[in-house]
């Protein structure tokens, strides 16, 4: 799709812009000629850009920033939870993220500012009833992380219907790539590459047969940039690869890319993990915004970037 050179440059605010997806998205948007403002948990300089320390609870300050910089598009990337988060962390999320998001969205509706909410294609659907999860499928999340995302979605959809909020909900699959932690609590591909680098084993919940949809972060943010530039609003869009790979498949793919074996320690499966989650991306493809590369190609590129590729 086009860039700002072929259309209208946007003034974009990334809430939670110093995180993994945010850093990649900010870079892609700036390369395309858009003006990007970042907020995060702490003040910092990320990739040469200043990050303002603004929690979502600072609604008035965020709105003042939006007004002062004439922001026309807000991308919401904020979460304090992980898929394994507890009930106490969910309670915190309600006060720190869910409630202030709804309050902010009401003000954005009044201003005519577009809101792109980054949900979770990997957790909002719950156990699949079909081969692939479609945007119109009923959502029944089985993790509190997924429930938190779904609650925000529902509140925003109500604001869209009742007050004309200019809304897009995107549901990414499982992104991996540049800026993702190699020793974090999520992101299988990155964690496997971290284990390869350090020569450590991976703890596997279950037997390794669980299937997920993996997407290189560069392909994710390219689709998101397209959606923003083409002003796709009033809908929900899955962003994934449309292909499923078991955990053991991913291990084999990383081993092939690096030429190194990874030891696995198997432990009992967790109740919050669905056995299969692959996104239907027909809507994204119909828009001409599917940029997903095959898993093996993405993993090879990522391993090479980290200096871990086989000779």
Structure, described:
The chain has 311 residues and is of the alpha/beta class. It is 38% helix and 19% strand. It contains nine helices and 15 strands. The protein has helices at 20-31, 59-68, 87-111, 144-163, 188-198, 217-229, 247-258, 282-286, 295-305; strands spanning 11-15, 35-40, 44-46, 49-53, 73-76, 114-118, 167-172, 174-176, 202-205, 211-212, 214-216, 235-239, 245-246, 264-267, 276-277. The strands form four sheets. Strands 3-4-2-1-5-6-7-12 form an eight-stranded mixed beta sheet, with helices on both faces. The protein has a three-stranded mixed beta sheet with strand order 13-10-15. Helix 7 packs across helix 9. The chain starts with 10 loop residues before the first strand and ends in a 6-residue tail after the last helix.
Q: What is the overall pLDDT average?
A: 94
Q: What is the CA-atom radius of gyration, in angstroms?
A: 19 Å
User: Roughly what fraction of the amino acids lie in strands?
Assistant: 15-25%
Give the H and E element order: EHEEEHEHEHEEHEEEHEEHEEHH
Looking at the structure, what is the overall shape?
globular
What is the CA–CA distance across the termini? 35 Å
Strand order, largest beta sheet: 3-4-2-1-5-6-7-12
Label the structural class.
alpha/beta
Separate helix tally: 9
* Total number of beta strands: 15
* Biggest pleated sheet: 8 strands, mixed
- Note poorly predicted spans: 1-6
The helicity comes to: 25-40%
């Amino acid at each position: 799709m086009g860039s700002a050179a072929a259309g209208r440059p946007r003034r974009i605010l990334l809430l939670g812009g110093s995180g993994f997806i945010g850093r990649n998205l900010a870079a892609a948007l700036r390369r395309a000629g858009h003006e990007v403002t970042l907020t995060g948990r702490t003040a910092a300089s990320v990739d040469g850009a200043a990050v303002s320390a603004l929690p979502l609870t600072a609604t008035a300050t965020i709105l003042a920033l939006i007004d002062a910089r004439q922001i026309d598009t807000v991308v919401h990337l904020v979460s304090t939870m992980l898929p394994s988060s507890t009930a106490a962390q969910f309670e915190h999320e309600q006060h720190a993220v869910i409630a202030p998001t709804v309050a902010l969205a009401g003000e954005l509706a009044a201003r005519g500012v577009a809101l792109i909410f980054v949900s979770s294609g990997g957790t909002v659907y719950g156990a699949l009833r079909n081969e692939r999860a479609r945007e119109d499928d009923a959502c029944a999340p089985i993790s509190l992380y997924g429930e938190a995302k779904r609650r925000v979605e529902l509140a925003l959809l109500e604001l869209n219907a009742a007050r004309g909020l200019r809304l897009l909900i995107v549901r990414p699959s499982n992104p991996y790539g540049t800026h993702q932690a190699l020793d974090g609590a999520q992101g299988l591909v990155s964690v496997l590459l971290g284990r390869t680098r350090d020569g450590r084993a991976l703890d596997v919940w279950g037997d390794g047969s669980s299937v997920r949809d993996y997407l290189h972060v560069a392909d994710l943010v390219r689709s998101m940039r397209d959606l923003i530039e083409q002003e796709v609003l009033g809908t929900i869009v899955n962003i994934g690869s449309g292909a499923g790979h078991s955990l053991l498949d991913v291990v084999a793919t990383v081993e092939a890319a690096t030429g190194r074996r990874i030891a696995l320690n198997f432990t009992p499966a967790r109740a919050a993990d669905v056995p299969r989650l692959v996104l239907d991306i027909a809507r994204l493809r119909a828009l001409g915004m599917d940029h997903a590369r095959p898993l093996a190609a993405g993993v090879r590129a990522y391993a090479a970037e980290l200096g871990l590729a086989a000779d």
